[in-house]
Automatic annotation (TrEMBL), chain A:
Reactions performed catalytically: a quinone + NADH + 5 H(+)(in) = a quinol + NAD(+) + 4 H(+)(out)
Subcellular location: Cell membrane; Endomembrane system; Membrane
SUBUNIT field: NDH-1 is composed of 14 different subunits. Subunits NuoA, H, J, K, L, M, N constitute the membrane sector of the complex.
Gene this chain is encoded by: nuoN_1
Enzyme Commission designation: 7.1.1.-
Listed InterPro entries: NADH-Q_OxRdtase_suN/2, ND/Mrp_TM
Listed name of the protein: NADH-quinone oxidoreductase subunit N
Single annotated GO MF: NADH dehydrogenase (ubiquinone) activity
GO (cellular component) term, any one: plasma membrane
Keyword Transmembrane helix attached: yes
From TrEMBL, chain B:
Lineage, broadest ranks: Bacteria, Bacillati, Actinomycetota, Actinomycetes, Micromonosporales
Transmembrane regions listed in the UniProt entry: 28-48, 132-148, 154-174, 186-211, 223-242, 263-283, 295-316, 323-344, 350-371, 392-410, 430-450, 478-501
Name of the protein: NADH-quinone oxidoreductase subunit M
Signal peptide annotation: 1-18
Entries under PANTHER family matching the protein: NADH-UBIQUINONE OXIDOREDUCTASE CHAIN 4
Source species: Actinocatenispora rupis
Entry's localization field: Endomembrane system; Membrane
Keyword flag Transmembrane: yes
Sequence similarity: Belongs to the complex I subunit 4 family.
Any GO molecular function: NADH dehydrogenase (ubiquinone) activity
Automatic annotation (TrEMBL), chain C:
Keywords on record: Cell membrane, Membrane, NAD, Quinone, Translocase, Transmembrane, Transmembrane helix, Transport
Name under which the protein is recorded: NADH-quinone oxidoreductase subunit A
Membrane topology reported for the UniProt record: Multi-pass membrane protein
Described function: NDH-1 shuttles electrons from NADH, via FMN and iron-sulfur (Fe-S) centers, to quinones in the respiratory chain. The immediate electron acceptor for the enzyme in this species is believed to be a menaquinone. Couples the redox reaction to proton translocation (for every two electrons transferred, four hydrogen ions are translocated across the cytoplasmic membrane), and thus conserves the redox energy in a proton gradient.
Species assigned in the record: Actinocatenispora rupis
Gene3D superfamilies tied to this protein: NADH:ubiquinone/plastoquinone oxidoreductase, chain 3
Pfam families attached to this UniProt entry: Oxidored_q4
The encoding gene: nuoA
Residues passing through the membrane, by range: 6-30, 61-82, 88-110
Enzyme Commission number(s) of this protein: 7.1.1.-
PANTHER family in UniProt: NADH-QUINONE OXIDOREDUCTASE SUBUNIT A (PTHR11058:SF22), NADH-UBIQUINONE OXIDOREDUCTASE CHAIN 3 (PTHR11058)
Length: 520, 515, 119
């Protein structure tokens, strides 16, 4: 035995209470896997839905408990400084779970599409006899629930990771289930599989960048801990070049997940191809997780070097807002339109992040939650407009929906107005928060581009509204499915929160404000 | 009295909700009742008034509660002598429009080939969407009242935005044949204006560190650099110029007014445009007077251009509603010129002009709508001899037109007179020239309104007019129009009704914005 | 940051490149050229390359290979743990137990869902 190695082992102290939410999610995901293995087919669905919701609610309750018992004010590091339990971490974990619960409701819906939105046996060749048979008869497979629990657990780990290696592991933990989930659509399976492969290949590529960045930063700082990198950035004698290359590589990996231009090209294809409930999960929770990571890296590891890299990320933010908005204008498919709007929204969050001061953190946190709820409800509504081929996502098919389904059209209009940033919706308060924070941080240029692009972005939204109300429906217009209880609940939550945070933003802003302090 | 202030916003909002949810006719009636209550509340605001504080804005009543402390947003409402007349004008016109809708629901346009939208074939279709129209009118009222009552820049912006979409829906659903293009143009222009307004608000708030209008006006721009003030004023003035509208940003207005249904046109011309002029006075001039002083000559030149161009275009118009719409450009030019003089007289003139234009143009659009409903055309060539067929309608049209052209003794006169006077008083060759040109524009207004009357009311009755039914005025029409006629007369005979209210706050404002 | 320590590496790189270049250029120049069928094959020794792959592999091969990874990883972690078991103590024991349980959950899933059946 090598005595030198042996002497180095110190057992990490693990504060199990502080990381209980993550443990609950991952543990319950394992329970889900076991249920999948041992329960008879008919029992799996109810048990999985129950396990999934119980896990998330319990996780959320634990997070609230932690937040109330002063972890937000007295943040702590645990597991050998690999995990940080602090205000932003808890807020982001809570956000992931709250949005995750709503997304789970959409995933669990089985009455809109008979048997659910997912394929029964993913391994059956698409388009074969057996495939047609399973599409007609068999209910969705239920692996989607443990998969989503793993993804959510990974996201929670990701937003509280305090060193680069943990962050990378968490990145993979939440990415791999998502790749799989993308491939599970019941209808248009080839499109869905294409989306999954695209997402997987590009995701793996971006992960490689991320790892390369870790190597560079390790070379620079001699450590993968954020705190050590921050110290090294001030005092290290090594070439800054190493640090900037490392930061650039890390940023590529993270901005890919956040869907920022020019790392956005996967977004429309994947959002379109994936089953819509999974798209909803990706647009809300993944965005929260990705920006959680970005916030922590920028504010903890690279705060002192911000003068050097902020202009570069600023350019990316501008590109993201402008290109996302411009391309959204030309879309003819509602899911692609929402995908491009999600890209542009990444730019707005980035604007808030780049304020690089306390209200930059709180406004970004606030924006992520507001956007998450609105986008969940929007995708939830997309699942309801159907014809015999499944969801009718082409915009022309939405013509005249205002007359056929006034309630749906009304809610969708409201959500579109929120996306467009019209006052009294959470879209306005969110944008107002990030733009004020960015102005306070001296990022006037970003705000100018932000305001301009949000006007541009209002047009595609309003076009949908106009289409729904002012055009006559086509003869073979799609029907609007009656939402089941789960989808109704998800839609109601999304729409009500959108209104509530528009009228009374203080509810959440105060929480975000008191949470906006990273542990070093 | 703070309760009343809240009531003016809450009652129409609840009414809008009720109108949209209840069955058609009940909904319309309930909506009208809400509008009536809001009107009473707004009138009652004048009782028990006492100027609050000694600042540049002395609200009679105010409400100041935190809305989102984290964002420094406050829910600060108040009403004073400058805003109260406009508040009452808004509630009055909304009430009249809602009542008019109870009596007569415009038919929503339909895009079907082979059917003349809005034509006789369409009117047979039963329609239960009148309640939505009432709901939208009430929603617009909430927005406009909010704009006039808010004493916080961000809140002002919020209400400013609220108006946009309901108005869009009114034009796009109940409008004339080319409503889609008109509605889109309206949205494009006003969204563009909103962005500039938001940018201007951001500049002011970021520079001054507060969004409170009372504080900002009291400071008179102190604490903001001259460059910042000029930029902020340019942004704000552009935003309000789109709304007012100021030449050359006016091109949305004729289309929107022409295509909108009667009640839409009335609200649009009567009060929506006032959001622009009121905003220019209270927000742009009030918060960044330094920028205003620098850019006032430019504003004056453009306003005078609007007066002249509006009048010249009117002389060539062949369609009734379009002519009235273009006359608005000219009238609002007078109001903007008054503000541009940055003097107490100019401000007073602008405020009186605002009210007069709201009353008279509101009436004109009501009459034009009634005429078009009866004759099924608005082309001047196809009208004529109205006096012989329908003397009541012709008489009212003549009254409104003569009032609008600025006959002494009617409301339109005072605003124009004071504006020209204020420009002359301002002194300097530029302002003298502007005053002269504006006076010429006033004379041209007489020319085109008289041309209108000659074409429509005089001469032999042509086909469209001969077949006009019914020739008499309906009771609902009389009820809807008589308050406007009486108020136009009252303001014309005793302008001090308005001037007395506005004198003190205008004086305070001028004191604050004069270096 | 001095580049002195890297000089030998650079030297080695240059030497390597030169050697490869030298071998490739000198061999065809000085070597005898006597061709026969065997020499023109892709490989001069070992198994004759098959013309075309006979068909697609059953997907089960991949499945089995992937399942192997589950146990592979387990072993990779078990070895270092066993070596330093003394120092890790109860903490290490419990953690490793948890780890094995987790892997067994995956194993149970595979087993129950028929991943281990060939047919």
């Amino acid at each position: 035995m090598n005595p030198v190695l042996a002497a180095d082992i110190t057992l990490p102290h693990i504060n199990y209470g502080a990381i209980a939410p993550i443990l609950i999610l991952l543990g319950m995901a394992c329970v889900g896997v076991l249920a999948e293995a041992f329960l008879p087919r008919t029992l799996r669905y109810p048990v999985q839905v129950l396990v999934s919701l119980v896990a998330q609610v319990a996780g959320l309750a634990t997070i609230i408990g932690l937040a109330l018992s002063n972890y937000a004010k007295k943040p702590t590091l645990t597991a050998g400084d690999a995990l940080a339990v602090d205000g932003p971490g808890l807020f982001l974990q809570g956000a992931v779970l709250v949005l995750g619960i709503v997304a789970t409701l959409l995933i669990a819906e089985r009455s809109v599409e008979r048997g659910g939105a997912f394929v029964a046996q993913a391994a059956v060749t698409a388009g074969s006899e057996a495939d047609a048979e399973q599409a007609r008869r068999q209910p969705s497979q239920t692996e989607i629930f443990p998969l989503s629990l793993f993804a959510l657990g990974g996201m929670m780990l990701f937003v509280s990771a305090n060193d680069l290696l943990t962050m990378f592991v968490a990145l993979e933990v939440f990415s791999l289930p998502l790749y799989l989930m993308c491939a599970l659509a019941r209808r248009r399976r080839l499109l869905s599989q294409e989306a999954a492969v695209k997402y997987f290949l590009l995701g793996a590529f971006s992960s490689a960048f991320f790892v390369y960045g870790i190597a560079m930063l390790y070379g620079f700082a001699g450590s993968v801990k954020f705190h050590d990198i921050a110290v090294a950035a001030i005092s290290s004698g090594k070439s800054d070049l190493l640090m900037f290359i490392g930061l650039a590589m890390l940023a590529i990996g993270l901005l890919f997940k956040a869907a920022a231009v020019p790392f956005h090209v996967w977004t429309p294809d994947v959002y379109q191809g994936a089953p819509t409930p999974v798209t909803a999960l990706m647009a809300s929770c993944t965005k929260v997780a990705a920006f959680g990571g970005i916030l922590r890296i920028f504010y903890v590891a690279f705060l002192d070097s911000r003068w050097d890299w902020r202009p570069v990320i600023g350019v990316i933010a501008v590109l993201t807002m402008v290109i996302g908005a411009i391309l959204a204008v030309t879309q003819t498919d509602i899911k692609r339109l929402l995908a491009y709007s999600s890209i542009a929204n990444a730019g707005y969050v980035l604007t808030g992040v780049l304020a690089m001061q306390k209200d930059g953190i709180s406004s970004s946190l606030f924006y992520l939650v507001t956007y998450g709820f609105t986008v969940l409800a929007a995708f939830g509504l997309v699942t309801l407009v159907r014809d015999q081929d499944g969801e009718a996502t082409h915009l022309s098919r939405w013509a005249g929906l205002g007359r056929k389904a006034p309630v749906l059209a009304g809610v969708f209009t409201f959500l579109m107005l929120s996306f467009a940033g019209i006052p009294l919706t959470s879209g306005f308060t969110g944008k107002f928060a990030v733009f004020s924070a960015a102005l306070g941080g001296g990022q006037t240029t970003l705000v100018i581009f932000g305001v301009l692009s949000s006007v541009l972005l209002a047009f595609p939204y309003l076009r949908v509204v106009v289409l729904m109300y002012l055009q006559e429906p086509a003869a073979d217009a799609p029907t609007v499915a009656v939402p089941g209880a789960l989808t109704s609940a998800a839609l109601a939550i999304g729409a009500i929160v959108t209104l509530l945070l528009g009228v009374w933003p203080s509810v959440l802003l105060d929480v975000a404000n008191s949470a906006a302090q990273f542990v070093g | 009295m703070t309760v009343l202030l809240v009531a003016t916003l809450a009652v129409p909002a609840l009414g809008a909700l009720a109108a949209a949810l209840l069955p058609d006719r009940t909904g319309r009636v309930v909506g009208t009742v809400a509008a009536a209550l809001a009107f009473l509340a707004s009138v009652a605001l004048a009782f028990g008034r006492e100027p609050g504080g000694t600042g540049a804005i002395r609200p009679w009543h105010q409400l100041d509660v935190p809305w989102a402390p984290a964002l420094d947003l406050r829910f600060h409402l108040g009403v004073d002598g400058i805003s109260w007349p406009l508040v009452v004008l808004t509630t009055l016109l909304t009430l009249l429009c809602c009542g008019y809708t109870v009596w007569r629901v415009p038919v929503p346009g339909v895009d079907r080939p082979g059917v003349d939208p809005g034509g006789p074939a369409e009117e047979a279709r039963p329609d239960d969407r009148g309640r939505y129209l009432v709901a939208l009118l009430l929603a617009i009222e909430v927005g406009i009242l909010g704009v006039f009552e808010s004493l916080d820049l961000v809140l002002f912006f919020v209400f400013f935005e609220i108006v946009l979409l309901p108005m869009y829906a009114v034009i796009a659903v109940w409008g004339g044949p080319r409503r889609r293009a008109a509605a889109t143009k309206f949205v494009l222009y006003t969204l563009f204006g909103s962005v500039l307004l938001l940018a201007g608000v951001f500049v002011v708030v970021a520079g001054a560190g507060t969004a409170d209008l009372v504080t900002l006006t009291q400071r008179g721009g102190a604490g903001l650099g001259h460059g910042t003030q000029v930029v902020a004023f340019a942004l704000l003035a552009l935003a309000f110029a789109v709304k007012s509208p100021l030449w050359p940003l006016h091109t949305w207005l004729p289309d929107a007014h022409t295509e909108a249904p009667t009640v839409g046109s009335v609200i649009l011309a009567g009060v929506l445009l006032k959001m622009g002029t009121y905003g220019l006075l209270r927000v742009a001039v009030g918060t960044v007077p330094g920028g205003a002083r620098t850019l006032a000559p430019l504003l004056g030149v453009l306003a005078t251009a609007a007066i002249l161009i509006g009048a010249l275009v009117c002389l060539r118009q062949t369609e009734l509603k379009r002519l009235i719409a273009y006359s608005s450009v000219g009238h609002m030019g007078f109001v903007l010129l008054g503000i541009a003089t940055l003097s107490a007289t100019g401000f007073q003139a602008a405020l009186v002009g605002n009210i007069a234009h709201g009353l008279l143009t509101g009436l004109l659009f009501f009459l034009a709508g009634a005429l078009k409903d009866r004759a099924h055309t608005g082309e001047l060539d196809r009208l004529g001899g109205l006096r012989e067929v329908a003397p009541g309608l012709a008489g009212l049209l003549a009254f409104a037109a003569i009032g609008s052209l600025g006959l002494p003794g009617l409301a339109g006169f005072w605003g124009e007179l004071f504006t020209v006077y204020a420009a002359v008083r301002h002194g300097g060759p530029l302002w003298m020239v502007l005053a002269v040109l504006a006076a010429v524009g006033g004379a041209l207004a007489a020319a085109y309104f008289l041309r209108l009357l000659r074409r429509v009311t005089h001469g032999p009755a042509v086909n469209a007019v001969v077949g006009l039914r019914p020739t008499a005025l309906a009771g609902a029409e009389l009820v809807a129009w008589s308050p406007l006629v009486l108020l136009a007369l009252a303001v014309g005979l005793a302008p001090s009704l308005v001037l007395a209210l506005t004198a003190a706050p205008v004086h305070a404002l001028v004191t604050a914005v004069t270096p | 940051m001095s580049i002195a320590p890297y000089v030998p590496i650079a030297g080695l790189l240059v030497l390597g490149a030169l050697f490869a270049l030298f071998s490739c250029t000198i061999a065809p120049l000085v070597g005898p050229k006597r061709f026969n069928k065997a020499k023109l094959e892709a490989y001069e020794c070992g198994i004759e390359p098959a013309p075309v792959p006979a068909g697609r592999f059953p997907i089960r091969f991949y499945l089995t290979a992937m399942l192997f990874i589950v146990f592979d990883i387990e072993i990779i972690f078990l070895y270092p743990w066993a070596v330093s078991f003394d120092m890790l103590g109860t903490f290490g024991f419990v953690e490793m137990l948890l780890f094995i349980v987790t892997v067994f959950i995956a194993y149970a899933y595979v087993w129950r869902r028929g991943g281990l059946d060939w047919d």
